[in-house]
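Input set for joint prediction.
Command: fold jointly, output tokens.
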Amino acid sequence: MESAGHQPVLIIVTLLISAFLSPLLYRWRKFLSGMVLLAALTGAFVTALTLLGQVARSGELSYYLGNWPPPWGIELVIDPLRVYMLLVVTGVSLWIFVYALRDLEHELHHDVIGWYYSLYALLVASMSAMTLTNDLFNLFVLMEICAISACAIITIKDKRECLEAGFKYLIMSAMGTGCFLLGVAMIYMVTGYLNFSFIQTGLAAALSEYPLNIFTAAALFIVAFGTKAALFPLHVWLPDAHASAPSPSSAMLSGLVIKIYAFALFMIFYRVFPRSLLDAIPLNEIILWLGAMGVMFGSIYAMLQTDLKKMLAYSSIGQIAFIFMGIGLDQPLALTGGLYHIMVHAFTKSMLFMSAGAIIYSTGVRRISDLAGIGRVLPIPLLAFTIGSASMIGLPGTGGLISKWYLALGALETGRIFFLLVILASSLLNAIYYMPIVINAFMSGDEFKEKVKTVPPSMQATLVVGILLVVISGIFSRQIIVLFEQALTSLY
Amino acid sequence: MLEDQIVRITSRLVAPFIQVYGIYVILHGHLSPGGGFSGGAIFGASLVLIALSFNLEAGVKQISHQTASVLESGGALGFTVTGLIAIALGGNYLANRAAGFPLGEAGQFFSSGAIMVITVFVGIKVASTITTLFYNIIEKETPHGNSKQAD
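tokens >
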């Protein structure tokens, strides 16, 4: 493997530095503090783009922190799939931050905004590092940073339900990381390594000698990442946490944070576990069934909600389960669908939460039944909501269709017709709870009753960008699909 | 009150020794058990002790809120910048000998290159975090999450 330049680590360090600077700067220069983070996020995104070029030219690259080669030191690996995830993380967080700059003034007390910037930068830094790291213990540390900053961007809004939701999230998430650490210890016990690639060869040899240790570790990993990513029976913390948080936090949590753990599970399955382990016990099958249940129950719970943000939060449980179904079907086409859904859902759900945030910003309305006729007073937020709903359902022309299409192809290819039906049924269920809101907002005869404040231009602009992103991901998907096809062939 | 006097005089006498010990643990992190975190915690404990045995004002006189949070960010920044210096010297991020930091003779006081610099920054960070945490706990919370001093 060739050695990369310093870009991968610079992405992480720039974000960390801006995390440490923003609370300081915010004391003296409020405006500058936001701009520093904006510059850091832009820098991270642009650097990630240059990494994409580098990977396209020379294939997989690696970076040894502190010049210590693995297995002794921490290794960062840059391959096409990780760069894809890195681009999604940095790009979406930059996009949400532009929205957050204005929305936060409305939702938070001005004393804590500097700290919010700091937490935001820490969250993005930890997620970017999680995509790149090739070391299990490093992954654990980053998961802790990510979990703590994710809890803090919920509880920073000093309201009773936020504190309660944040506390619940903290406990569940701490249990998840606890399980992960125990699993890492068991893997370390039998292989003596923490580096992904070394473990993979080590486990293949150790499987016949210590099967119980390895099976327990696999079970612990599924529970750990299941809790963190809100896989169906472990999802209980998600609705409160995502619904009560400030809107930019909801967009980050639903759009990126749960997905990063799904991606980490994908990495564990295909980069840490040897093929012989996946063949020996039906790990993928377990994930597949939990995913299928999540797809159905997430949608059913969402139908019962009366609060707009809570409905979106429950819908996230159903949508994240699609990504797990992709891993569960264990087939290149389905994995393509699952991985593509990471990006599509990051765009779509962030945009939906941001348009919900814009509705709350300008009218204060949160109940779904109060939204009648709102489309005529807030055209752009509701247009964004409509496009987002279309993508959630999987209508043609939106990104949602592409990911569900590949998932369905994968289900057909493996001959699992039942799961094809699950995917179709969930699309119908999504239509049942998204469409009435859209129809009610635009077609209802009633005039909208509440007072309306204008949505700031920067917030409107981010929503327009969101609409474009969702539509572009639905029409020009070929390049990314080809990238997946090439990357995934190395796994089989 | 008599008891009060005993506590105050004892802690005033003991505090400088605790602080010196904290600095010792930080600086000998690469030679003996302990290091940035433990040493910083010991140093921070001395400031907490003063605030506990006297009152919050006496504690704040030692290290104010503002200074504590500047030191907190500064410590973390120092750590990351030390890593960046390694890049500037031609190594990878956080490289030590590979980047050309002088290592010295094993077992001597100056024998760890960048590690000692990093431990000092970690110590600053931990000491100021412990005091900030303590201040925040004993201060009253106002509805908006910014803290005001309790009487």
